[in-house]
Structure formats: C-alpha cells, structure tokens
Amino acid sequence: MLSPRRGVHSIPIYHPPLAGRQGLRLDFNENTVGPSPRVLARIQQLTMDDLARYPERQPVEAMLAKYLGVSESDLLLTNGVDEAIHLLCQTYLQAGDEAIVVVPTYSMYRIYMSATGAEVASLPAGKDFRFPADIVRDRVTDRTRLIAIANPNNPTGTLTPLKEIEDIARGAPATAILVDEAYFEFCGKTFLPSARGYPNVFIARTFSKAYGLAGLRMGVLIGDGDQMASLRRICSPYNVNAIALACLPEALVDQSYIERYVRETQESRGRMEVALQSRGIQFWPSHANFVLARIGSTKLDAQAFVERMRRRGILVRDRSTDYGCEGCVRFTLGPEEHTNRMLKALREVLEELAIAQGVAH
Question: DSSP letter string over 266-311?
Fold first, then answer.
C-alpha cells in the first residue's frame, strides 16, 4: 500500500482560519485597504493573450533589482515569501541536518524545515520576546545548516538589532541565515546594505503586506549570486504568475501610495499601544503593522475576546497557542477609519468581559 515517506505525519499542520472572514480584516496582517489603484487599472488592461502565455520573470526581476540596488543575479522573485523559505530549505537541508528557529515566530519555518527531514531546534525568545542572539550563536554546530530570523518578528513585532544578525552570520559561515523582512516597510530597518559581506545571508521581502498584493502571491529573495544560482536550480521557471508580474511594476512605481499607507498604519500602531497602556493591558511595542496584546491569561480568554470582536464585525487573531503567548491576541493596524472602528469595539468588548483597568496580566 502506498504511504508517504517516514516523517511526513510528524510535520505540524498550519490551519489558517480563512473560512468565513466577514468583517474588517485585522487578523492576517494584510493591507486593509488594498493595493495602489494603478494595480487594478493594470489588471483591467490584461488580454487573453497575456493569460495564455507562460509568465516571463526576468524583465520584472531586472526592474526590481535596479529598484533595490542589487545585481540581477542576486535576486529571485518567488511565489510569496513562503516559496522563498521552501526553496532555502530544499537547497540547504536534508535528513540529519539541523535548523534553528526562535519561538514564537512564523509557523511555516518549522513546517518547511521539517519537510526535509531535518531536526528543528526551537529556542525560546528572551524576556519581552527579545531575540536571544547569544543562545543562538552557542547552539550552532557543524550540523546547523539554516537559521530563520523574522525581523520584525511575527507575532510579537519585536526587532532584532542588525549587529546581532551580523554576529550570528559571521560566526556560522557554513549556515544559511534567512532574514525575513516581510514587515520591513513599517520599521525601515533592513540588513540589505550589510548583506554583501555575508554570502550565507538571504533576505526575503514580500509584497503582501504594505503593497496589498497578498492575493497575487509575490515575494523576493536576495542573496549572494553564487548561492542564488543553486536556488534557481530548484525553482520552477514559471513560479510567479503573469498577473502578479504585470502588477508589481505598477505597485512599485506608486511609492506615494505606499508611504501614505505606512504612515497611517504607524500612527494607528501608536494609538493602539496608548489605548492598551491606558487600560493596563500588557502589550509588546511593535515595529510591524500589528500589535500583540495579552487580553487574558488563557486560550479561553483569547477565544472569548476574538468571538465578541467578530460579532462586532472586527476580525482579530487568537495567538494564544504560540509559545509564551497564553491569552494573547494580535491586532492588525491600518488607516485611521479602521482603527477608530477597532478601538470602539475594543472598548465595548473589554467592558463586556469585565477586563478592568489595572488588572495584572
């Protein structure tokens, strides 16, 4: 009887709560208003011939490389950051190897790492979810082939100092270091200028967050040209669809739209943190487009809060099953109008659940 290879059934399953997402979507860290109008205009110009052809990635890669100030050979467009993670795992990991993540963090790192048969070491974050750079450096052995660092991290919004990433990369030259900068636009901190000196470092960016292209699945991986040549051997030549390739240049050229959305989101982030602080609710200062807060002490507390927010048409994300996140909920931020609606619902639900100011969390 046919059966999957050994180890497949032990891979954790990621269950995004996508069904029935009716309401203001503040649960998946998506852009809450959508992409630049130029993107929709470009989609409306597409012809049947455009859709009948296999997509050609190279011209858009050349444009993006110029925009980012890197060589074309250093850059690969991917089907979202997820494919970038998958390609890194397939290129550098095999059974008997080790990979490292610091938890809590993006769940797909562990899934793609485990799928190769590699052993995944999950190291706990430090106080206030600080990245434990010293512990990570000490954990590296000759079996360690990949380390994933989300910067800013999801779901905590915390930022790892770039100097600490440099120290890890310098101390582990035979280990691939993924610096996942999915939320780069909301913090402005990037390892990209330093990457040239570290051929073992790869930087991933996405166009799903600030750019509002989550439905088109477009990401980019940047690294040393020689290393990227190995990843291209594994990557499909048609991994990014024609609609996404047609739209990305339009999204990139409208930087005023992106800058305005990022500025409004950052302002909303500040308002959210003030609102939580005024109510005595524990939260972690964020460098991304979301804030993680401890609404209660248990998963049931978080579930009750999320459900009551949903009844008011506001979708937020229960993160209470993540390491160290008992009772925590994550709130995606957007423009002022959306934040006003969310804060109104927040006040009502907190009163409803009798979570009063000054309660210890």
Answer: HHHHHHHHHHHHHTT-EE---SSSEEEEE-SSSHHHHHHHHHHHHH
Q: Mind listing the pLDDT tens digit for each residue in 166-211? A: 999 999 999 999 999 999 999 999 999 999 899 999 999 999 999 9
| Contact of 291 with 339, CB cutoff 8 Å | no
Q: Give Cα separations from 267 to 35, 67, 281, 344 (angstroms).
A: 19, 27, 19, 17
Q: Which domains does the chain have, with CATH numbers?
A: 8-30+256-352 (3.90.1150.10), 37-253 (3.40.640.10)
pTM of the entire predicted model: 0.94
The contacts of residue 57 (CB under 8 Å, 6+ apart) are 77, 237, 238, 239, 240, 245
How far is residue 136 from each of residues 115, 119, 280, measured CA to CA in Å?
22, 15, 33
Alpha-carbon torsion 293, 154, 139, 203, what sign?
negative
State the Cα–Cα distance between residues 67 and 59, nearest whole angstrom: 13
d(CA 339, CA 172): 43
Please give the DSSP secondary-structure letter assigned to residue 324: T
Distance CA 245, CA 152 (A): 26
DSSP H or E segment with residue 178: strand 176-180
